[in-house]
Design goal:
Strand content: 15-25%
Structural class: alpha/beta
Largest sheet: 6 strands, parallel
Order of helices and strands: HHHEEEHEHEHEHEEHEHEHEH
Helix content: 25-40%
Number of strands: 11
Shape: globular
Strand order of the largest sheet: 7-6-5-4-1-11
Number of helices: 11
Distance between the termini: 43 Å
Radius of gyration: 19 Å
């Protein structure tokens, strides 16, 4: 049975070969729309009309030693228009301002070399400003079990941590270090947030399938797919970006194969991917590795209201309604 017929029949236990087969579907075929419909149907069954907005603050705009070839904050090709590091007072003020809008999970992102004890201290200060039902998520560099336990003690409920496409080639990070950090996250009882990223035109479907299967094996509850944004000044700028059609297909295949329990995301937000069952979007403040403006809310970053507006357009609402 062809993979597309298998998922139309309701069987989404997909092998690596079947994932690749689905990714190879032509973006201009009727099967493309069958794929989107199957993914959307899965989301509607699992998530109903429940939508989510997650908000992230990038708390420092400083050169990062991991030197990712797609990142505007890499030390070797720093492309942001300023350098700064937010004080705990500034971060708390921003959180208080963001709380005027409704959002579900709160993320704090840093460069890989941000002092971990300082980050944990900031987390303790921020935790008290969040609602009891709001999750607090770390988006930081690699770490071990001791740090994972400290994060949990400080009030963090989860960590966004992934093995990026062409890790060790387009970055100075190592897959084995990423995997060790993921094990520490799980062992500490923190929730692991995952994403296939940063997807560019040069990545093969075989490469994507490896990371989709990784997320499936990790039993991810909060899943995402993100295309690479070509940031001027970065080594991968000239390679461009994949189309909305292509990103939407990858979202659909990821959603079906991983079958996340809570939400499926596309980043950055695009309308077409909402038809593939996306029910969660990100709002962003502060530093952003896909921007040249160091305060992304003034340029690329969505705000919570914009994210909710798009979700409501496709029938998703928050728990506040």
């Amino acid at each position: 049975m062809k993979a597309i017929e298998k998922i139309k029949a309701g069987n989404i236990d997909l092998s690596e070969d079947e994932i690749i087969e689905l990714l190879r579907i032509s973006n201009f075929s009727s099967e493309y729309y069958d794929l989107l419909a199957a993914s959307n149907a899965l989301s509607r069954r699992k998530f109903g009309n429940r939508g989510y907005v997650f908000t992230q603050i990038g708390i420092n705009a400083e050169p990062c030693p991991i030197n990712c070839n797609f990142c505007s904050m890499a030390a070797t090709h720093y492309s942001l228009n300023d350098k700064w590091k937010k004080s705990v007072e500034d971060i708390c003020q921003e959180v208080q301002f963001l709380q005027k809008s409704y959002f579900d999970d709160f993320f704090m992102m840093t460069t890989a070399n941000y002092p971990i004890e300082e980050f944990i201290s900031v987390g303790r200060s921020v935790r008290g400003l969040l609602r009891k039902d709001q999750k607090m998520v770390a988006n930081i560099g690699d770490f071990g079990l001791d740090t994972a336990l400290k994060l949990k003690e400080a009030g963090f409920t989860g960590v966004y941590h992934i093995n990026r496409l062409r890790e060790g080639e387009d970055t100075m990070a190592k897959t084995e270090d990423r995997e060790a950090t993921m094990r520490a996250i799980k062992e500490a009882g923190l929730e692991l947030y995952y994403c296939i990223e940063p997807i560019g035109p040069e990545h093969s479907y075989e490469e994507l399938a490896v990371e989709i299967l990784r997320a499936k094996d990790l039993k991810i509850d909060v899943m995402a797919a993100m295309r690479r944004i070509p940031v001027k000044g970065t080594p991968l700028y000239e390679k461009g970006q994949i189309s909305d059609l292509e990103l939407t297909k990858i979202v659909a295949v990821s959603n079906l194969a991983v079958n996340p329990a809570r939400s499926m995301n596309v980043h950055e937000p695009i309308k077409l991917a909402m038809l593939a069952g996306v029910n969660q979007l990100y709002a962003e403040v502060g530093a952003n590795p896909r921007d040249t403006e160091s305060h992304t809310e003034q340029n690329r970053g969505f705000n919570p209201e914009g994210a909710w507006s798009l979700l409501r357009e496709f029938g998703y609402v928050s728990s506040a309604y």
